[in-house]
């Protein structure tokens, strides 16, 4: 930029958070701005500040400033870009958007002039681009209306804060519009500002913007015509480029600097205050927290357990909490936990909050941190850039919703909202959307979707090859554009969802901090930022996480109590041998956390004997430890203690409990504190820098700091390397120890219930589906294997849910029936309560069920108790009810239909309940299978023997840590057999594996330390044609 | 006697897929419904693919898992229509009374066809089968006293089956046929499947009244079909009336005059036919066959539908005046596309065209002069690419496509067609002089550049232009364009 040239700042840039109106992420926009030598960039996304937090964070890292703005859709449909000058302006913008969003349908926003007038202070307005209010008015050709509009804007914002925006994007005739705007500026004495109104960072991204335009107009490129951009000039342009474009109007460039100079606000001055609690008179937040903590501590540490060490820890924590201004937040969480418990809802704190003795004393968590030597700094430390949140586990479903609604009620209006979840373009969605835009054949798109299921990690194939396999040949003229578009769109925001449980709180109105908008779910409100954005901006949140297992435990406990077998939930001993026996046998289907295929493959080798072993088991089968190759060292050291070593002798006290293998985040923090003299907050910052969504630059910076500190302490190069490797690997997904303990507690409770209250446990499991790893069919088979009898749905006996009939007998409920309406079930139960059914005709005449409901009941055999087999019930119930006195001529006749065969019953069971209480599908064809070994008989065969297994596919997994290999679990009538499929075989049999419901796998038996797997050599489909209509479900790539 | 022709694997046969190929037909067309997230399923599967476990209703991925060599093709509506036409034309050669309620299915009423006599029915059936085989098509022929029984017979035919009243055993064999041969509605088939009713015999074993009570009229109709003995009227197919005249000449015509006499005769006859049916001619399909084996075909659109012989003749004559042939005309055919006479009049006291016939005549003359597809209405395409246009016939209603906003502004541009290549001298990336052909032009000023680009998603059609307006010292104003590195003068303003 020449020295005397006027400066230029882009005031009207859009990011991909304008959803289909911008093709670059806010981070990329900021990086490009920095590269072009800009000191400021205003991001004005459509109807929101969605990308502002990310832009702010990136800009700060780059040493430039991201100015907040937004494009507002007015009630006339025109768009008005505004720029935030002051904090008041920011609050006005947020409130204005909140009101507009909450008054409109999801995804819509219309700001009224009244709303605009009320909230205009602190904002500057631009006249916008071709979608802007001014251009729309000019298009109409009524000059008086144009003048009136601008005068209205001047009255609203003040004429010194209204700017006429002019553009030059290298298009013929655009100067005609520009000259009209110049005339207007002169007439109204309004300043002109130059802008390129960029939609993307660099010219290459124009193709993605064109693709987005197609998606917005529900068309494809060949048909989009004039909707597409005429050139690639809508990119971010440097001051030099803009000066050359506006050499004749230098004042329009200079004016941009004046606009930027007027901006005082940045997101670092958000004005967020931690929530506070209403405390009794005579107390402030700190004193009341102190009082509640010590009252709780005396209950939690009865007698002499409240040792000086515990007291000292509590004092230390309270002092820090008070210093950081967190007391109100702790009290808010304490109060909601108290409310939850008073309302009979199970609740348990987890995550790093369990490292806090204050949380334990306030009954927020159930893990005793002092005795367990948990590191408080993992939860809270002075000098940290962001604040931790408290995660509360609640039973999933209605109970959790009650708690969430209570929070909305307490913080109403606009004091609480869920954090957003930014849904991004990933493999299948990117393929589907870009495929549509390029008008690729529909079957190619569908096949790609089938081949590369969600969560499938295609390490072994390049995208080009994947697309080729889906049916798009290399020479296809649209392959190259597709690959470009796919890579560009991958990871960009697609739409905004809501986080599963993260809720942000603010006593003084959250709508002044961030715009709120309705979620798809009725009664829910979300903020425009996701949890990381909130965290980065210091907004505190509580995670209300729904755990299916909490709901199972809650229901099982209630059922047990009702049946006179209360469960000593918080007091049963964690050393019950029967529970560990079940774990050692990997008989853990249905229990919490340790039921997955990988967990079950480790349990027989790990052989947990005590509660801490379970904690390790929960933590060790995670991507972090697996990638960091920590699983095998731990297991081998467990087997042979002579192999235990500690990287550095100084680490022995830290790593002793995990046999020298760093497994927990707390251990990593402590290692950094010991080896590099890091403070608690420095160590935590290191951990955060390593976590997966952070930038490489930030990681490198943190690692350099660690290396420098270790160099200062003369740590050996080899030790340094091992420390860095372990930090890098498990920081990705590693558990805090406290979190592992919390989960292990739930895992143990579920194991205890499975062992000691099996009927109640399985009934609750079936009622809480979908959850966990296995389908109802597998759970029922497992229950039967544990000696339980499962009775089918019956119109005379069933309740709405599964019920326990006797200690070893369960009855399926009406809810298990697919396609049977809940209203019909309620009505049926009501009528049955009035008086029992005399016969089927009595039931049909009293219940007035729809044809569909009758058919489902008959198909499931629910009428059998009334003297009918399934087919005769179908026949009988198919006659329409005659309301007059004329009886059907044929109803008195016996059904001419024969009873269903075993196969037919099985197909009917799977069609209406997704499971069978009768014979397993494989049992019916067992005699047709030659040389196929049952799951239960695999242990009888020698290691490395060649054999074949067959069954219903219940799980296909291809984890990111497995280098493209795949794990398949097949279920037969005797149990589950597991197969390991090498990546090459997976690729050659991909369609067979992903599309077939029954498989036959030939391979070599691997029998090691009680873990049995078949190393697959050949995979074929098992053509279970008789059952081809049975809807069998498997747990795929989840 | 009734005969039923059934084209098995109709969709595959329409696509001319060999019977031995592993192939299937997918629902929809390649890019249809691309904005709906519905999966496409197989509608028709060849026998070899079926043997590999592929069945109707599967998705293409599932089919490929079972049968990696399978070719999954999309339906071809035009080909299916053509095949159906062929089937109907074939039926027309046997009888005037036939019905076709499903593609690939035709029921022929042969009762009044005297040339077909018992006991030669089997022979006739084989003849019918052979007729189609010669055209590369497979049909199954069933013959019986009732249409429904003939349909059942066609399903049991390999390739021909004739059923007489006395053949009780043969009829029993039909009881084993699956219900799907009757193409029942999906919901009905699902209900029957739940009942364990999979064959015609099982359905017939149920009392008709009981079925009717439970399944309603659709169930009764299905029961009757399975029974096959119902007498019913066919839903007859009536072929459209063709307005066509043709003649094969003994002696060739070498001049226009006798040809026009012949055409006048044709036109008079055809217009009489048209007037009887209250129709008018909108299109003439005209074909000449020459002594040397060559032929000349021409479609002539008529500006305003008419049955005025003189008008039609004038149009034909205008076209023929510009035609020269190397051999005498031996065959003449003229076909008229008939429409209802126009009831619309755009203006109160006048028609849209003052003399539509004259207009059509002029167009015909223009086309004869310029060549086919070179005369018509120029229409800008909805793209940012300058001068991208298509030619549509004058007499077709122009499509209302959006025009680029810029296209109507500024000075008129006299386009050079083709544009003139130029060598351009640049200074600071701006043109200061140019040479085009023998002309050296000194530039006094220039405006631009403007950038335009598009169709980037297809390398074969991608385009990108840098456009300048240049003022020459002699006062000219030109449009200068750089495309793919080459400069050209596209036109002159004013």
TrEMBL record, chain A:
Q: Which Pfam families match?
A: DNA_pol3_alpha (PF07733), DNA_pol3_finger (PF17657), HHH_6 (PF14579), PHP (PF02811)
* Gene3D superfamilies in alphabetical order: 1.10.150.870, Metal-dependent hydrolases
Q: Any keyword Lyase?
A: no
EC number(s)?
Answer: 2.7.7.7
Q: What is the name attached to this protein's record? A: DNA-directed DNA polymerase
Q: Which UniProt keywords apply?
A: Cytoplasm, DNA damage, DNA repair, DNA replication, DNA-directed DNA polymerase, Nucleotidyltransferase, Transferase
**Reactions that this protein is recorded to catalyse:** DNA(n) + a 2'-deoxyribonucleoside 5'-triphosphate = DNA(n+1) + diphosphate
Domain of life of the native organism: Bacteria
The Polymerase/histidinol phosphatase N-terminal domain, residue ranges: 9-76
- Tell me, what is an example of a GO biological process annotation in this record? DNA replication
Fetch the NCBIfam families from UniProt.
polc (TIGR00594), PRK05672.1 (NF004225)
InterPro entries, A to Z: DNA_pol3_alpha_NTPase_dom, DNA_pol3_finger, DnaE2, DnaE2/DnaE/PolC, DNAPol_HHH, PHP_dom, Pol/His_phosphatase_N, Pol/histidinol_Pase-like
Principal EC category: transferase
Recorded GO molecular functions are: 3'-5' exonuclease activity; DNA-directed DNA polymerase activity
User: Does the entry feature the keyword rRNA-binding, yes or no?
Assistant: no
UniProtKB/TrEMBL annotation, chain B:
Is this entry keyworded Acyltransferase?
no
Q: Which GO terms describe its molecular function?
A: damaged DNA binding
* GO BP: DNA repair
Q: Does the keyword Transferase apply?
A: no
**PROSITE patterns in the record:** UMUC
Q: Kindly state which keywords UniProt assigns to this record, in alphabetical order.
A: DNA damage
Q: Which residues form the UmuC domain?
A: 1-159
| Domain of life according to the entry | Bacteria
What Gene3D superfamilies would the database entry show? 3.30.70.270, 3.40.1170.60
Please give the family membership noted in the entry. Belongs to the DNA polymerase type-Y family.
Recorded protein name is UmuC domain-containing protein
Q: To which species is this protein native?
A: Brevifollis gellanilyticus
